[in-house]
Amino acid sequence: MPCYHQARAVHIIQQLKNCKDFIFSISTHANLFKFGLLNDTITTNHLLNSYLRFRRIQYAHHLFDEMHEPNVVSWTSLMSGYVNMGRPQSALWLYTKMSESEVSPNGFTLATVINSCSILADLKTGKMVHAHVQILGLQGNLVVCSSLVDMYGKCNDVDGARMVFDSMSCRNVVSWTAMIAGYAQNGKGYEALEVFREFSSYMMERPNHFMLASVINACASLGRLVSGKVTHGAVIRGGYELNDVVASALVDMYAKCGSFLYSEKVFRRIRNPSVIPYTSMIVGAAKYGLGKLSLNLFEEMTDRKVMPNDVTFVGILHACSHSGLVDEGLRLLNSMHEKHGVMPDVRHYTCVVDMLSRVGRLDEAYKLAKSIRVNPNEGALLWGTLLSSSRLHGRVDMAVEASKWLIEYNQQVAGAYVTLSNTYTLAGEWENAHSLRTEMELVGVHKEPGCSWIEIKDSIYVFYAGDLSCERGDEVISLLRELERRMMERGCVGGSTGLVFVDVEQEVKEKIVGLHSERLALAFGLISIPKGVTIRVMKNLRICSDCHEAFKLISKIVERDFVVRDVNRFHHFKDGSCTCKDFW
After folding, report:
1. What is the pLDDT at residue 11?
2. Which of 184, 282, 174 is nearest to 228 (CA)?
């Protein structure tokens, strides 16, 4: 290139770096053509990146097609542009075209392509790119390996993520964050917290807000309030308390750990909450049966011109369902598309089916469920909801149809059998109940065992229904017997409406109910946690009606507060009543 052309190119490159006007980029494109500089790859790459900064992907791709010798920077820049425009599939297509050229990808190219696979959750292509990484000898590249850990995690292959993570001789906060997030997003909260402990012990770097948000989410899924509070301290020390993602995670964590007041405190510290913390708060209130509060938050949100999204509407409809606010819920459903531009989907209609079922409007709920076209995964929640309500209201006909749907599509099979058995039993159809139990044994279906856990000083104590080998077992049983005696003095007699019993003697029923996992956990909490501190119990199944009644009475007898998080919602027992108002 002649010296005067070289000087002109340097000048143009400097102008493109400082360019803040798309029109200037177009005029520069014309000048490059005029002065014959389009053949200079370096100068043209700067123009390409200028178009990408202005999100003009079509102009960038057209320029790329005009280039005589695009280099690895040209290919990588355009791929990255497509990813930033939300078109990762186009980036993958470009990568296949690049493999047909004479240009070899570098670490940044592969990291961009792997990121595309992460967004698409395309594990097959991701594994193919991983093979390219090894062929090109880039398995020691920190950026590439961190991207691979993230990709495997987002594709639900945490073992693959861990394999890459363990192979890394050098890690930074990004790679640690990717591993923690991979575990947290795949329901492996304990592993996420363990990796965070390793990071805190071995690394000199401070955690970033992405890592802290993932750790908080792990605490939320496990109901680990103490660990969540410790992580909140790290958030404050790092100055991330007002970060939208972190604040939303904190709101969600405190709500899921039974400390809704803390959720409100965190939320109210956010200066201008976006849709994410508002949605977290609405969902949290819904889980506590605070439907009116959810509605007030939704109204506050829309008044502040914050646009609700599809998840917000799932939360607000769930709130209406769990608080019996049917008219409000139906009004919101009808306003979704017309007023807010959000198209209702299966999740929203499932909330409405639940809402109608809970107030006894089962025929309307059934009609709506039948009208919705669903795939097996989507239909599992819809028909599972209808099945539970059918049992609650003694509608055997509806329970049978809902169970058949779930069993036919291999969804929630154990739950379907158990709930239908409950329905037959409550309706007095002993023969059908016996037949169903026999069928369960023949096909090898087993009811998920009841399990509850309680956190004390960052230690988790787990209890299983009927397991007397639990921690401080003798003391636990002794206290339960004493509580049972005091409840009977007050006229409380155990029932069996929440269990799967067929023609069992009343005395035996009461004994088995008394050994439900949540009662064992509660008794352990009563002898281990000092008075004045709220006892928080987590359970993997829905709390049965007998235990619910018992917990109300026990809260009055011992004059203490209990919070139980079951699979559906929270129950705050105090002075002989529950916040759910017996509506769950």
Report:
1. 59
2. 184
Q: How far apart are CA 427 and CA 391, in angstroms?
A: 9
Give the up-direction half-sphere exposure of residue 298: CA atoms within 13 A in the CB hemisphere: 30
Instruction: Give residue 560's identity as a one-letter amino acid code.
Output: R
Distance between CA atoms of 175 and 407, rounded to whole angstroms?
A: 42
* Helices within 372-429 (DSSP H only): 376-392, 396-408, 413-426
How would residue 4 be classed by pLDDT, with cut points 50, 70 and 90? very low
Q: Cα separation of 463 and 573, whole Å?
A: 20
pLDDT tens-digit map of 406-433: 777 776 667 777 777 777 776 677 787 7
Q: What is the pLDDT of residue 103?
A: 96
Q: Cα separations (Å) of 218 from 214, 228, 315, 482, 555? A: 6, 9, 20, 37, 30
- What whole-number distance in Å separates Cα of residue 284 and Cα of residue 335? 22
**Partners of 455 in beta bridges:** 460
CA distances 2 to 13, 35, 37, 75, 410, Å, are 16, 12, 11, 27, 73
Burial state string for 399-435 with b = 16 or more CB within 10 A and e = fewer than 16: bbbbbebbbebebbbebbbbbbbbbbbbeeeeebbee
Can you read off the two tokens belonging to residue 261?
A: 């007041």
Q: What is the dihedral of CA 183, 208, 307, 279, to 10 degrees?
A: 50
> Contact, 448 vs 517, CB < 8 A?
no
Count H helices, E strands: the chain?
Answer: 30, 6
Pair 255, 289: CB distance under 8 Å: no
Residue 69's φ and ψ, nearest 5 degrees, are -135, 75
At 507 the three-state DSSP class reads: helix
pLDDT, residue 494, reads 54
Please report which helix (H) or strand (E) contains residue 249, including its range.
helix 244-256
Q: Band of the pLDDT at 507, cuts 50, 70, 90?
A: very low
* Residue recorded with tokens 């296949």: 96
Residues 379-400 pLDDT 10s: 888 888 888 888 778 788 888 8
Torsions phi, psi of 455, nearest 5?
A: -105, 125
Angle (nearest 5°) at CA 413 between 407 and 418: 110
**Is the Cβ–Cβ distance between 523 and 479 less than 8 Å?**
yes
Residue 498 is predicted with a pLDDT of: 40
Are the CB atoms for 28 and 47 separated by under 8 Å?
yes
The pLDDT-based confidence of 499 (bands split at 50, 70, 90) is very low
Instruction: Please say whether the beta carbons of 110 and 128 come within 8 A.
Output: no
Contacts of 147 (CB under 8 A, 6+ apart): 110, 111, 114, 115, 118, 178
pTM for this model (two decimals): 0.79
d(CA 161, CA 181): 11
Helix (H, G, I), strand (E, B) or coil at 134: helix
